[in-house]
From TrEMBL:
<dbReference type="InterPro" id="IPR039420">
    <property type="entry name" value="WalR-like"/>
</dbReference>
<dbReference type="InterPro" id="IPR016032">
    <property type="entry name" value="Sig_transdc_resp-reg_C-effctor"/>
</dbReference>
<dbReference type="GO" id="GO:0006355">
    <property type="term" value="P:regulation of DNA-templated transcription"/>
</dbReference>
<dbReference type="GO" id="GO:0000160">
    <property type="term" value="P:phosphorelay signal transduction system"/>
</dbReference>
<dbReference type="InterPro" id="IPR011006">
    <property type="entry name" value="CheY-like_superfamily"/>
</dbReference>
<keyword id="KW-0597">Phosphoprotein</keyword>
<dbReference type="InterPro" id="IPR058245">
    <property type="entry name" value="NreC/VraR/RcsB-like_REC"/>
</dbReference>
<dbReference type="GO" id="GO:0003677">
    <property type="term" value="F:DNA binding"/>
</dbReference>
<dbReference type="InterPro" id="IPR001789">
    <property type="entry name" value="Sig_transdc_resp-reg_receiver"/>
</dbReference>
<protein>
    <submittedName>
        <fullName>Response regulator transcription factor</fullName>
    </submittedName>
</protein>
<dbReference type="InterPro" id="IPR036388">
    <property type="entry name" value="WH-like_DNA-bd_sf"/>
</dbReference>
<keyword id="KW-0238">DNA-binding</keyword>
<dbReference type="Pfam" id="PF00072">
    <property type="entry name" value="Response_reg"/>
</dbReference>
<feature type="domain" description="Response regulatory">
    <location>
        <begin position="9"/>
        <end position="136"/>
    </location>
</feature>
<feature type="modified residue" description="4-aspartylphosphate">
    <location>
        <position position="60"/>
    </location>
</feature>
Length: 220
């Protein structure tokens, strides 16, 4: 499979040095003449990608923002959001042991022009290289649960984030989103319908919404 040797630029992002090195070694065998650079934090990944303008980014989902900070999926998610916004034609492979939280990026993935492949970390190196080749071809591959699961709108995710991460009430959410309060209430209705949360005697509907949103990976 070492025939795909046309000059390519690749950035590999992973905070685990052993995984980083094995990924780079596998890519060097597949893309003999490729220029491969590495990053171990989200901040250094953005810097490397801005500098090298790569054809492909291979990104671990759980990353630290800066050296010495803990690895968190939310950091990887934000990095991916930024990359898709700034580099709409960048081919991306995301490596993750638990891809459920990537459902939050579904609208952005659907709009992304470049390849976008989600690769389970349990894949063999050969299988991972196949996914890399798919990304290079501009293909999109997401797990089955993302293809058949919830259809999520960006404004719903923002309501969930503001309510459950920042603890805001509807009026404050409306102000932050620059919409009417009734629009926020409409978003709640849509979210709750998508999550299968309906009025139930003795249960707090907002709390039930939070529980279901966490189960579906929409919030941490």
């Amino acid at each position: 499979m070492a025939g795909s040797s046309t000059l390519k630029k690749i950035v590999v992002v992973d905070d685990h040095e052993l995984v980083l090195n094995s990924t780079v070694e596998a890519l060097r065998q597949q893309y003999v003449d490729a220029q491969i650079t590495t990053a171990q934090t989200a901040a250094s990944a953005l810097a490397q990608i801005a500098q090298t303008q790569p054809d492909l980014a291979v990104v671990d989902l759980a990353l630290p923002e800066q050296p010495g900070q803990p690895s968190r999926p939310e950091v990887g998610l934000q990095l991916l959001r930024t990359l898709m916004q700034q580099y709409p034609s960048l081919n991306i492979v995301v490596q993750s042991a638990n891809a459920k939280s990537l459902v939050r990026l579904k609208p952005a993935i659907n709009a992304h022009e470049g390849g976008f492949i989600i690769a389970d970390k349990s894949l063999s190196l050969r299988e991972m290289l196949t996914k890399v080749e798919w990304a290079m071809q501009g293909l999109v591959f997401t797990p089955k649960e993302m293809r058949t699961g919830l259809e999520i709108k960006p404004e719903w995710l923002e309501v969930l984030r503001l309510a459950f991460h920042e603890g805001l009430q509807d009026k404050a959410i409306a102000e932050r989103m620059s919409v009417a309060e009734r629009t926020v209430r409409h978003y709640w209705t849509q979210v709750q319908d998508a999550l299968g949360v309906y009025p139930d005697s003795g249960k707090n509907q907002r709390i039930q919404t939070e529980i279901r949103a966490r189960e579906e990976g929409l919030i941490d």
